[in-house]
Hints:
Blueprint: E1 4-12, E2 18-27, E3 32-36, H1 43-51, E4 58-63, E5 66-67, E6 78-81, H2 93-103, H3 108-122, H4 137-149, E7 155-159, H5 167-184, E8 187-192, H6 195-201, E9 204-209, E10 212-217, H7 219-224, H8 229-234, E11 241-250, E12 253-258, E13 261-265, H9 272-275, E14 281-286, E15 291-293, E16 304-315, E17 320-326, H10 334-340, E18 341-342, E19 347-348, E20 355-361, E21 372-377, E22 383-385
Parallel strand pairs: 3-8, 3-9, 6-7, 7-8
Antiparallel strand pairs: 1-2, 1-4, 4-5, 9-10, 11-12, 11-14, 12-13, 14-22, 15-21, 16-17, 16-21, 17-20, 18-19
Helix pairs in contact: 2-3, 2-4, 3-4
Amino acid sequence: MAELRFRDLTKAxxxxxxxxxxxxxxxxxxxxxxxxxxxxSGKTTVLRLTAGxxxxxxGEIAIGGEVVNRLHPMDRDIAMVFQNYALYPHxxxxxxxxxxxxxxxxxxxxxxxxxxxxxxxxxISDLLKRKPGQLSGGQRQRVAMGRAIVREPAxxxxxxxxSNLDAKLRVQMRAEIQRIQHRLETTTIxxxxxxxxxxxxxxxxxxxxxxxxxxxxxxxxxxxxPVDLFVAGFIGSPAMNLVHAHLEPSNGSMVAEFGSRKxxxxxxxxxxxxxxRAGRDVILGMRPEHxxxxxxxxxxxxxxxxxxxxxLAEPVGAEVIAHxxxxxxxxxxxxxxxxxxxxxxxxxxxxxxxVTCTARLDPKTKAAxxxxxxxxxxxxxxxxxxxxxxxxxx
Length: 394
């Protein structure tokens, strides 16, 4: 076991693409750290740099206090679990799991004992004589993990190991990986593009965007206090609702105007940075789970009311996901503006005049497509962002 440290870690590829840009991060001994972000954010490159599969352009990586920049991958005391399992098809499960130990010239009896012990932990003792082609996806994933565990490395590196599994099996394997990691207490970096996976598994979560570390914190802190629009929109499912709003003072309070709607915000619920923006624009954020059907919410108790037409209602058992429209243009972040850029005339296509939002409602709701939905929201649960810098206002 060992702590892991990145100092000014940078990887630039020929042609000018910077995949990882000045990453500074410390991962504690035994910590389960998840790197999450969209495709191209640099998370897998961090993993490959740590493993020694890519050369570092600038900075350093230290494992257990030792800088490993120039060490061969085999000398870094790490074990990697790949997305595609990378099992040898002609070898049995036992041979696959023990192959790395065989390369180290460990005695056969010792290899057999180690493989048997790990197979017991993973619940695959009855599969040791089978070959990968005779296994299910979940069983192959356990074998790939077993091959890493038997080596007793200082660090586990896991590159989207569950992406090839079906939804139900992914949930089961998430819990299995957590259980094993907590039992072994091995420092782990886990890479995923799935924010739900990140939130449920990591001791801390590092959110990556365009090669940079945007925010690193506990899952709950990321959810409660996103530092900017990107994290706010990325963490949470369904995503946070975002609208452009104009703030105007009103009888000691503040009114947020967006489209044809107005919300009166009590002064006591506003952060100082928001209260100081009277007469200016902000981006207003509302989590879907913070919106309630007014007919089921009980007494108002200072909550704000919002009415909108329902375009779709999705019953999913324990809740209903209601989609509704607001007559205000969607919020375009720096990322979405780049995607919307018209390369022919270098202009942004005309913005829609409405935005679709979502609410997670009690299954007793009467919300249905074509109906009008009355929603209430606690003003203290609202989020505010600077429309120019995209940073959170606190």
